[in-house]
Predict the 3D structure of the following.
Amino acid sequence: MTGPEETTDQPVSEARLIQARMDKLERLRKRGIDPYPARFKPTSDSASARTMLDTVEADQGEGAKSDPLILAGRMMARRGMGKAAFIDLRDATGTIQLHLRQDVLGEQYELLDDLDLGDIIGAEGPVFRTRRGEPSIEVQSLTVLTKATRPLPDKWAGLRDTEKRFRQRYLDLIANDRAMEIARMRADIVASMRSFMHKRGFMEVETPMLVTVPAGASARPFGTHHNALDRDLYLRIATELHLKKLIVGGFDKVCEIGRIFRNEGFDQDHNPEFTTIESYEAYADYNDVMEMVEEMVSTIAHEVTGSMIVPPAEEDGDEINLTPPWPRLDLREEIIKRSGIDFLECSDVESLSEAMRERDIHVEPGANWGRLLDKVISDHVEPHLIQPAFLVDYPVEMSPLAKRKPDSDGIVERFEGFVGGHELCNAFTELNDPVDQRARFEEQERLRREHGDDEMDRLDEDFLVAVEHGMPPTGGLGLGIDRLAMLITGERSIREVILYPQLRD
Protein backbone atom coordinates (compact mmCIF):
# COMPACT_ATOMS: atom_id res chain seq x y z
CA MET A 1 0.00 0.00 0.00
CA THR A 2 1.36 3.43 -0.92
CA GLY A 3 0.81 6.30 1.49
CA PRO A 4 -0.14 9.91 0.71
CA GLU A 5 2.53 11.77 -1.19
CA GLU A 6 3.12 14.30 1.62
CA THR A 7 4.60 11.58 3.86
CA THR A 8 7.67 11.09 1.65
CA ASP A 9 10.96 12.58 2.78
CA GLN A 10 12.06 13.60 -0.72
CA PRO A 11 11.23 17.14 -1.90
CA VAL A 12 8.62 17.00 -4.64
CA SER A 13 7.45 19.90 -6.78
CA GLU A 14 3.88 21.07 -6.26
CA ALA A 15 3.10 20.29 -9.90
CA ARG A 16 4.11 16.66 -9.38
CA LEU A 17 2.09 16.45 -6.19
CA ILE A 18 -0.97 17.82 -7.97
CA GLN A 19 -0.50 15.37 -10.84
CA ALA A 20 -0.21 12.48 -8.38
CA ARG A 21 -3.51 13.52 -6.85
CA MET A 22 -5.13 13.83 -10.27
CA ASP A 23 -3.97 10.28 -11.06
CA LYS A 24 -5.58 9.04 -7.84
CA LEU A 25 -8.74 10.94 -8.72
CA GLU A 26 -8.90 9.14 -12.04
CA ARG A 27 -8.32 5.75 -10.39
CA LEU A 28 -11.22 6.37 -8.04
CA ARG A 29 -13.52 7.16 -10.94
CA LYS A 30 -12.41 4.05 -12.84
CA ARG A 31 -13.38 2.01 -9.79
CA GLY A 32 -16.85 3.50 -9.95
CA ILE A 33 -16.33 5.78 -6.97
CA ASP A 34 -17.61 9.36 -7.19
CA PRO A 35 -14.91 11.50 -5.50
CA TYR A 36 -17.40 14.39 -5.16
CA PRO A 37 -20.75 12.89 -4.08
CA ALA A 38 -23.68 15.27 -3.83
CA ARG A 39 -24.69 14.46 -0.26
CA PHE A 40 -23.57 12.86 2.97
CA LYS A 41 -25.34 13.18 6.33
CA PRO A 42 -23.15 13.08 9.45
CA THR A 43 -24.93 12.19 12.68
CA SER A 44 -22.18 13.46 14.97
CA ASP A 45 -19.01 15.54 15.13
CA SER A 46 -15.68 15.02 16.86
CA ALA A 47 -16.62 16.91 20.02
CA SER A 48 -19.96 15.11 20.36
CA ALA A 49 -18.27 11.76 19.77
CA ARG A 50 -15.84 12.37 22.64
CA THR A 51 -18.69 13.40 24.91
CA MET A 52 -20.67 10.32 23.94
CA LEU A 53 -17.74 8.08 24.81
CA ASP A 54 -17.52 9.61 28.28
CA THR A 55 -21.24 8.98 28.75
CA VAL A 56 -21.05 5.36 27.54
CA GLU A 57 -18.04 4.61 29.73
CA ALA A 58 -19.78 6.12 32.74
CA ASP A 59 -22.78 3.84 32.14
CA GLN A 60 -21.06 0.64 30.96
CA GLY A 61 -17.54 0.86 32.29
CA GLU A 62 -14.08 0.74 30.75
CA GLY A 63 -13.84 -0.77 27.27
CA ALA A 64 -17.40 0.16 26.28
CA LYS A 65 -18.29 1.28 22.75
CA SER A 66 -21.05 3.54 21.56
CA ASP A 67 -23.61 2.85 18.89
CA PRO A 68 -22.30 3.59 15.38
CA LEU A 69 -21.83 7.27 14.55
CA ILE A 70 -21.36 8.97 11.19
CA LEU A 71 -18.71 11.71 10.99
CA ALA A 72 -17.15 13.76 8.20
CA GLY A 73 -14.06 15.90 8.06
CA ARG A 74 -10.66 16.59 6.58
CA MET A 75 -7.83 14.05 6.72
CA MET A 76 -5.00 15.85 8.53
CA ALA A 77 -2.59 13.03 9.40
CA ARG A 78 -2.13 9.34 8.80
CA ARG A 79 -0.15 6.68 10.61
CA GLY A 80 0.31 2.98 10.15
CA MET A 81 0.63 0.76 7.12
CA GLY A 82 -0.26 -2.80 6.17
CA LYS A 83 -3.44 -4.13 7.71
CA ALA A 84 -4.20 -1.24 10.09
CA ALA A 85 -4.01 2.54 9.93
CA PHE A 86 -4.93 5.61 11.94
CA ILE A 87 -6.25 8.87 10.46
CA ASP A 88 -6.69 12.21 12.24
CA LEU A 89 -10.06 13.56 11.11
CA ARG A 90 -10.61 17.28 11.62
CA ASP A 91 -14.05 18.87 11.56
CA ALA A 92 -15.47 22.18 12.73
CA THR A 93 -15.38 21.13 16.39
CA GLY A 94 -11.92 19.59 16.59
CA THR A 95 -10.02 16.43 15.71
CA ILE A 96 -10.68 12.75 16.40
CA GLN A 97 -8.75 9.64 15.48
CA LEU A 98 -10.08 7.06 13.04
CA HIS A 99 -8.99 3.45 13.46
CA LEU A 100 -9.13 1.53 10.19
CA ARG A 101 -8.56 -2.24 9.89
CA GLN A 102 -8.44 -4.28 6.73
CA ASP A 103 -10.36 -7.20 8.25
CA VAL A 104 -13.22 -4.82 9.14
CA LEU A 105 -13.35 -2.68 5.98
CA GLY A 106 -12.60 -5.39 3.43
CA GLU A 107 -12.28 -3.92 -0.08
CA GLN A 108 -12.95 -0.41 1.23
CA TYR A 109 -9.55 -0.56 2.91
CA GLU A 110 -8.01 -0.16 -0.54
CA LEU A 111 -9.41 3.38 -0.64
CA LEU A 112 -6.46 4.38 1.53
CA ASP A 113 -4.18 3.94 -1.49
CA ASP A 114 -5.91 6.88 -3.16
CA LEU A 115 -6.35 9.17 -0.16
CA ASP A 116 -4.09 12.13 0.66
CA LEU A 117 -3.81 14.66 3.43
CA GLY A 118 -6.44 17.33 2.90
CA ASP A 119 -9.05 14.97 1.44
CA ILE A 120 -12.50 15.14 2.99
CA ILE A 121 -13.87 11.77 4.02
CA GLY A 122 -16.81 10.27 5.86
CA ALA A 123 -16.55 7.47 8.39
CA GLU A 124 -19.12 5.33 10.20
CA GLY A 125 -18.54 3.29 13.32
CA PRO A 126 -18.67 3.29 17.12
CA VAL A 127 -16.47 5.47 19.27
CA PHE A 128 -14.18 3.62 21.67
CA ARG A 129 -10.96 4.19 23.60
CA THR A 130 -7.69 2.69 22.38
CA ARG A 131 -5.18 1.00 24.67
CA ARG A 132 -3.35 4.32 24.79
CA GLY A 133 -6.50 6.03 26.00
CA GLU A 134 -7.28 7.94 22.79
CA PRO A 135 -10.97 8.31 21.83
CA SER A 136 -11.27 6.84 18.33
CA ILE A 137 -13.82 5.82 15.74
CA GLU A 138 -13.71 2.13 14.84
CA VAL A 139 -14.38 2.63 11.15
CA GLN A 140 -16.83 0.14 9.66
CA SER A 141 -17.52 2.14 6.50
CA LEU A 142 -15.36 4.72 4.68
CA THR A 143 -16.57 7.23 2.07
CA VAL A 144 -14.62 9.63 -0.14
CA LEU A 145 -16.44 12.96 -0.02
CA THR A 146 -13.99 15.38 -1.66
CA LYS A 147 -10.68 14.62 -3.31
CA ALA A 148 -8.36 17.61 -2.74
CA THR A 149 -6.30 18.11 -5.90
CA ARG A 150 -3.94 20.63 -4.33
CA PRO A 151 -1.78 19.59 -1.36
CA LEU A 152 -1.68 21.29 1.99
CA PRO A 153 1.73 23.00 2.14
CA ASP A 154 4.59 22.34 4.52
CA LYS A 155 3.26 19.01 5.78
CA TRP A 156 1.07 21.30 7.91
CA ALA A 157 3.42 21.37 10.85
CA GLY A 158 2.16 24.93 10.92
CA LEU A 159 1.61 27.79 8.51
CA ARG A 160 4.53 30.13 9.15
CA ASP A 161 4.12 32.73 6.41
CA THR A 162 2.04 35.47 8.04
CA GLU A 163 1.01 37.06 4.73
CA LYS A 164 -0.06 33.68 3.37
CA ARG A 165 -2.14 33.10 6.48
CA PHE A 166 -4.19 36.22 5.79
CA ARG A 167 -4.30 35.97 2.01
CA GLN A 168 -5.45 32.36 2.12
CA ARG A 169 -7.41 32.46 5.34
CA TYR A 170 -9.02 29.10 4.59
CA LEU A 171 -5.56 27.51 4.85
CA ASP A 172 -4.98 29.30 8.14
CA LEU A 173 -8.26 27.92 9.49
CA ILE A 174 -7.35 24.41 8.36
CA ALA A 175 -3.87 24.53 9.86
CA ASN A 176 -4.19 26.78 12.86
CA ASP A 177 -6.51 25.85 15.71
CA ARG A 178 -5.98 29.32 17.19
CA ALA A 179 -7.31 30.98 14.03
CA MET A 180 -10.46 28.88 14.26
CA GLU A 181 -10.81 29.70 17.96
CA ILE A 182 -10.51 33.46 17.33
CA ALA A 183 -13.12 33.33 14.56
CA ARG A 184 -15.53 31.53 16.87
CA MET A 185 -14.84 33.94 19.74
CA ARG A 186 -15.54 36.92 17.51
CA ALA A 187 -18.86 35.42 16.45
CA ASP A 188 -19.70 34.83 20.11
CA ILE A 189 -18.75 38.44 20.95
CA VAL A 190 -21.16 39.80 18.33
CA ALA A 191 -23.92 37.41 19.42
CA SER A 192 -23.45 38.44 23.07
CA MET A 193 -23.48 42.12 22.08
CA ARG A 194 -26.73 41.72 20.16
CA SER A 195 -28.33 39.91 23.07
CA PHE A 196 -27.20 42.63 25.50
CA MET A 197 -28.60 45.44 23.38
CA HIS A 198 -31.88 43.66 22.64
CA LYS A 199 -32.42 43.04 26.36
CA ARG A 200 -31.97 46.77 26.96
CA GLY A 201 -34.74 47.51 24.49
CA PHE A 202 -32.67 48.64 21.49
CA MET A 203 -34.09 48.01 18.04
CA GLU A 204 -31.46 46.84 15.56
CA VAL A 205 -31.74 48.55 12.18
CA GLU A 206 -29.87 48.81 8.89
CA THR A 207 -28.87 52.11 7.28
CA PRO A 208 -27.41 52.83 3.83
CA MET A 209 -23.82 51.92 2.98
CA LEU A 210 -23.86 54.04 -0.18
CA VAL A 211 -24.39 57.71 0.74
CA THR A 212 -24.35 61.04 -1.05
CA VAL A 213 -22.52 62.83 1.80
CA PRO A 214 -19.91 60.84 3.77
CA ALA A 215 -20.50 62.53 7.13
CA GLY A 216 -20.64 61.62 10.80
CA ALA A 217 -16.88 61.22 11.39
CA SER A 218 -13.53 62.70 10.52
CA ALA A 219 -12.29 60.38 7.78
CA ARG A 220 -11.49 60.25 4.08
CA PRO A 221 -14.17 58.27 2.20
CA PHE A 222 -14.07 55.75 -0.62
CA GLY A 223 -15.90 57.03 -3.69
CA THR A 224 -17.80 55.26 -6.44
CA HIS A 225 -20.20 56.14 -9.26
CA HIS A 226 -23.79 55.04 -9.70
CA ASN A 227 -24.32 54.56 -13.43
CA ALA A 228 -28.13 54.53 -13.48
CA LEU A 229 -28.35 57.72 -11.42
CA ASP A 230 -25.22 59.19 -13.01
CA ARG A 231 -24.04 60.49 -9.66
CA ASP A 232 -21.08 60.01 -7.36
CA LEU A 233 -21.68 58.12 -4.13
CA TYR A 234 -19.51 57.20 -1.17
CA LEU A 235 -19.15 54.25 1.15
CA ARG A 236 -20.28 55.35 4.60
CA ILE A 237 -17.67 56.40 7.14
CA ALA A 238 -20.18 56.18 10.01
CA THR A 239 -23.79 55.21 10.66
CA GLU A 240 -24.38 58.10 13.06
CA LEU A 241 -26.47 60.58 11.08
CA HIS A 242 -28.92 58.07 9.66
CA LEU A 243 -29.44 56.54 13.11
CA LYS A 244 -30.09 59.93 14.68
CA LYS A 245 -32.70 60.64 12.02
CA LEU A 246 -34.53 57.58 13.38
CA ILE A 247 -34.44 59.16 16.84
CA VAL A 248 -36.02 62.24 15.26
CA GLY A 249 -38.59 59.91 13.70
CA GLY A 250 -39.72 58.64 17.07
CA PHE A 251 -37.70 55.53 17.92
CA ASP A 252 -36.22 55.92 21.40
CA LYS A 253 -33.49 53.26 21.19
CA VAL A 254 -31.80 52.21 17.95
CA CYS A 255 -28.54 50.46 17.15
CA GLU A 256 -26.69 49.07 14.16
CA ILE A 257 -23.87 46.57 13.92
CA GLY A 258 -22.31 47.16 10.54
CA ARG A 259 -19.34 47.66 8.31
CA ILE A 260 -17.65 51.07 8.08
CA PHE A 261 -15.26 52.14 5.32
CA ARG A 262 -12.48 54.72 5.65
CA ASN A 263 -9.89 55.44 2.98
CA GLU A 264 -6.88 55.32 5.26
CA GLY A 265 -3.76 53.28 5.89
CA PHE A 266 -3.64 50.11 7.91
CA ASP A 267 -1.53 48.93 10.80
CA GLN A 268 -1.92 46.73 13.87
CA ASP A 269 -4.91 48.78 15.04
CA HIS A 270 -6.53 49.91 11.77
CA ASN A 271 -8.13 48.32 8.72
CA PRO A 272 -9.83 50.35 5.93
CA GLU A 273 -13.06 48.41 6.47
CA PHE A 274 -14.06 47.54 10.00
CA THR A 275 -17.11 46.77 12.10
CA THR A 276 -18.75 48.97 14.71
CA ILE A 277 -21.83 49.12 16.79
CA GLU A 278 -23.46 52.53 17.00
CA SER A 279 -26.36 53.10 19.36
CA TYR A 280 -28.57 56.09 20.18
CA GLU A 281 -30.88 56.39 23.14
CA ALA A 282 -33.34 59.21 23.60
CA TYR A 283 -33.44 60.88 27.02
CA ALA A 284 -29.98 59.58 27.93
CA ASP A 285 -26.68 61.44 28.25
CA TYR A 286 -23.02 60.47 28.12
CA ASN A 287 -23.07 59.36 31.77
CA ASP A 288 -25.79 56.83 30.96
CA VAL A 289 -23.78 55.65 27.95
CA MET A 290 -20.63 55.19 30.06
CA GLU A 291 -22.53 52.93 32.41
CA MET A 292 -23.91 50.96 29.47
CA VAL A 293 -20.46 50.52 27.89
CA GLU A 294 -18.74 49.21 31.01
CA GLU A 295 -21.61 46.83 31.66
CA MET A 296 -21.75 45.67 28.04
CA VAL A 297 -18.02 45.03 27.64
CA SER A 298 -17.68 43.22 30.97
CA THR A 299 -20.80 41.14 30.27
CA ILE A 300 -19.55 40.12 26.83
CA ALA A 301 -16.13 39.17 28.20
CA HIS A 302 -17.71 37.05 30.91
CA GLU A 303 -20.12 35.32 28.54
CA VAL A 304 -17.42 34.55 25.96
CA THR A 305 -14.48 33.66 28.22
CA GLY A 306 -16.05 33.00 31.61
CA SER A 307 -14.17 35.87 33.23
CA MET A 308 -13.95 39.66 33.37
CA ILE A 309 -10.16 39.34 33.66
CA VAL A 310 -8.38 39.47 30.29
CA PRO A 311 -4.94 37.78 30.18
CA PRO A 312 -2.05 39.97 28.97
CA ALA A 313 -1.39 40.06 25.22
CA GLU A 314 2.34 39.90 25.97
CA GLU A 315 4.30 37.81 28.45
CA ASP A 316 5.42 40.88 30.38
CA GLY A 317 2.05 42.62 30.13
CA ASP A 318 -0.61 43.17 32.75
CA GLU A 319 -3.92 41.43 33.21
CA ILE A 320 -6.84 43.71 32.39
CA ASN A 321 -9.77 43.81 34.78
CA LEU A 322 -12.97 44.81 32.99
CA THR A 323 -15.13 44.76 36.13
CA PRO A 324 -17.23 47.94 36.44
CA PRO A 325 -17.09 50.72 37.36
CA TRP A 326 -14.32 52.14 35.17
CA PRO A 327 -12.68 55.41 36.27
CA ARG A 328 -13.77 58.69 34.65
CA LEU A 329 -10.66 60.77 33.89
CA ASP A 330 -10.88 64.46 32.99
CA LEU A 331 -9.20 64.88 29.60
CA ARG A 332 -7.63 68.26 30.38
CA GLU A 333 -6.18 67.02 33.68
CA GLU A 334 -4.76 63.89 32.07
CA ILE A 335 -3.08 65.86 29.27
CA ILE A 336 -1.52 68.24 31.79
CA LYS A 337 -0.43 65.31 33.97
CA ARG A 338 1.17 63.36 31.10
CA SER A 339 2.53 66.11 28.86
CA GLY A 340 2.45 69.39 30.76
CA ILE A 341 0.29 70.95 28.03
CA ASP A 342 -2.87 72.84 29.02
CA PHE A 343 -5.07 73.08 25.95
CA LEU A 344 -6.95 76.04 27.45
CA GLU A 345 -3.70 78.00 27.51
CA CYS A 346 -2.65 76.73 24.05
CA SER A 347 -5.85 77.70 22.32
CA ASP A 348 -4.52 78.26 18.80
CA VAL A 349 -2.47 76.29 16.29
CA GLU A 350 0.72 78.31 16.82
CA SER A 351 0.91 78.03 20.61
CA LEU A 352 -0.08 74.36 20.62
CA SER A 353 2.46 73.56 17.89
CA GLU A 354 5.20 75.29 19.86
CA ALA A 355 4.31 73.38 23.03
CA MET A 356 4.37 70.12 21.10
CA ARG A 357 7.79 70.83 19.56
CA GLU A 358 9.19 71.59 22.99
CA ARG A 359 8.19 68.06 24.00
CA ASP A 360 9.39 66.40 20.77
CA ILE A 361 5.84 65.62 19.62
CA HIS A 362 5.52 65.54 15.84
CA VAL A 363 3.60 68.50 14.43
CA GLU A 364 1.83 67.59 11.22
CA PRO A 365 2.21 70.42 8.69
CA GLY A 366 -1.11 72.14 7.98
CA ALA A 367 -2.96 70.28 10.74
CA ASN A 368 -5.77 72.10 12.52
CA TRP A 369 -5.86 72.61 16.30
CA GLY A 370 -8.07 69.61 17.02
CA ARG A 371 -5.86 67.23 15.05
CA LEU A 372 -2.78 68.51 16.86
CA LEU A 373 -4.34 67.97 20.27
CA ASP A 374 -5.41 64.49 19.23
CA LYS A 375 -1.75 63.76 18.48
CA VAL A 376 -0.81 64.89 22.00
CA ILE A 377 -3.43 62.55 23.45
CA SER A 378 -2.32 59.57 21.37
CA ASP A 379 1.37 60.12 22.18
CA HIS A 380 1.24 60.99 25.88
CA VAL A 381 -2.08 59.88 27.36
CA GLU A 382 -3.35 56.76 25.58
CA PRO A 383 -0.29 54.55 26.24
CA HIS A 384 -0.90 54.89 30.00
CA LEU A 385 -4.55 53.78 29.82
CA ILE A 386 -3.97 50.03 30.17
CA GLN A 387 -6.77 49.30 32.61
CA PRO A 388 -10.19 50.35 31.28
CA ALA A 389 -10.96 54.03 31.71
CA PHE A 390 -13.03 56.82 30.20
CA LEU A 391 -11.47 60.11 29.13
CA VAL A 392 -14.23 62.68 29.50
CA ASP A 393 -15.01 66.27 28.46
CA TYR A 394 -13.34 67.20 25.17
CA PRO A 395 -12.82 70.56 23.47
CA VAL A 396 -15.65 71.53 21.16
CA GLU A 397 -13.15 71.86 18.27
CA MET A 398 -12.63 68.08 18.37
CA SER A 399 -16.31 67.16 18.63
CA PRO A 400 -18.63 68.74 16.06
CA LEU A 401 -21.54 66.46 16.94
CA ALA A 402 -21.41 66.63 20.76
CA LYS A 403 -23.49 68.80 23.11
CA ARG A 404 -21.79 71.58 25.08
CA LYS A 405 -21.22 70.91 28.77
CA PRO A 406 -23.24 73.32 30.91
CA ASP A 407 -21.13 76.04 32.57
CA SER A 408 -17.96 74.86 30.80
CA ASP A 409 -16.89 77.18 28.02
CA GLY A 410 -15.60 75.36 24.96
CA ILE A 411 -16.09 71.85 26.44
CA VAL A 412 -18.53 69.19 25.22
CA GLU A 413 -20.01 66.11 26.87
CA ARG A 414 -17.92 63.53 25.09
CA PHE A 415 -15.98 60.51 26.29
CA GLU A 416 -13.67 57.96 24.75
CA GLY A 417 -13.16 54.55 26.32
CA PHE A 418 -9.63 53.12 26.43
CA VAL A 419 -8.36 49.66 27.31
CA GLY A 420 -4.88 48.25 26.84
CA GLY A 421 -3.60 51.61 25.62
CA HIS A 422 -6.05 51.66 22.67
CA GLU A 423 -9.28 53.50 21.98
CA LEU A 424 -12.29 51.21 22.23
CA CYS A 425 -15.23 53.58 21.85
CA ASN A 426 -16.33 57.17 21.34
CA ALA A 427 -19.57 58.67 22.65
CA PHE A 428 -21.42 61.93 23.22
CA THR A 429 -24.37 63.58 24.68
CA GLU A 430 -25.63 64.32 21.19
CA LEU A 431 -25.96 67.88 19.94
CA ASN A 432 -29.62 68.56 19.20
CA ASP A 433 -29.51 72.35 18.83
CA PRO A 434 -29.97 72.81 15.06
CA VAL A 435 -28.48 76.33 15.03
CA ASP A 436 -25.34 75.26 16.88
CA GLN A 437 -25.08 72.12 14.75
CA ARG A 438 -25.25 74.07 11.51
CA ALA A 439 -22.61 76.51 12.75
CA ARG A 440 -20.28 73.66 13.68
CA PHE A 441 -20.69 71.92 10.35
CA GLU A 442 -20.00 75.19 8.55
CA GLU A 443 -16.84 75.62 10.65
CA GLN A 444 -15.75 72.09 9.68
CA GLU A 445 -16.25 72.94 6.01
CA ARG A 446 -14.21 76.13 6.45
CA LEU A 447 -11.37 74.24 8.11
CA ARG A 448 -11.37 71.63 5.37
CA ARG A 449 -10.97 74.31 2.72
CA GLU A 450 -8.40 76.21 4.75
CA HIS A 451 -6.25 73.19 5.59
CA GLY A 452 -7.02 71.03 2.55
CA ASP A 453 -8.06 68.29 4.97
CA ASP A 454 -10.26 65.61 3.36
CA GLU A 455 -10.79 63.98 6.76
CA MET A 456 -12.76 66.83 8.32
CA ASP A 457 -16.43 66.10 8.97
CA ARG A 458 -18.86 67.27 6.30
CA LEU A 459 -22.06 69.28 6.29
CA ASP A 460 -25.06 67.05 5.61
CA GLU A 461 -28.01 69.30 4.81
CA ASP A 462 -30.55 66.48 5.04
CA PHE A 463 -29.41 65.69 8.57
CA LEU A 464 -29.62 69.35 9.57
CA VAL A 465 -33.17 69.54 8.26
CA ALA A 466 -34.03 66.45 10.33
CA VAL A 467 -32.62 68.01 13.53
CA GLU A 468 -34.54 71.20 12.78
CA HIS A 469 -37.72 69.12 13.13
CA GLY A 470 -36.66 68.36 16.70
CA MET A 471 -34.40 65.65 18.14
CA PRO A 472 -34.85 64.79 21.84
CA PRO A 473 -31.90 64.76 24.25
CA THR A 474 -29.91 61.71 23.21
CA GLY A 475 -26.88 59.70 24.24
CA GLY A 476 -24.91 58.12 21.42
CA LEU A 477 -22.16 55.51 21.18
CA GLY A 478 -19.74 54.18 18.60
CA LEU A 479 -17.70 51.11 19.60
CA GLY A 480 -15.23 49.18 17.46
CA ILE A 481 -16.05 45.49 17.41
CA ASP A 482 -12.65 44.58 15.94
CA ARG A 483 -10.91 46.38 18.83
CA LEU A 484 -13.21 44.63 21.30
CA ALA A 485 -12.38 41.28 19.72
CA MET A 486 -8.66 42.08 20.00
CA LEU A 487 -9.13 42.86 23.67
CA ILE A 488 -11.12 39.75 24.58
CA THR A 489 -9.05 37.31 22.48
CA GLY A 490 -5.77 38.84 23.65
CA GLU A 491 -4.54 39.50 20.11
CA ARG A 492 -2.30 42.47 19.30
CA SER A 493 -3.09 42.76 15.58
CA ILE A 494 -6.46 43.65 14.08
CA ARG A 495 -5.65 41.31 11.18
CA GLU A 496 -5.95 38.34 13.55
CA VAL A 497 -9.59 39.12 14.39
CA ILE A 498 -10.80 40.02 10.87
CA LEU A 499 -11.27 36.98 8.68
CA TYR A 500 -10.34 38.86 5.50
CA PRO A 501 -8.15 41.90 6.31
CA GLN A 502 -6.89 44.27 3.63
CA LEU A 503 -3.34 43.46 2.52
CA ARG A 504 -0.73 45.06 0.33
CA ASP A 505 -0.07 43.65 -3.13
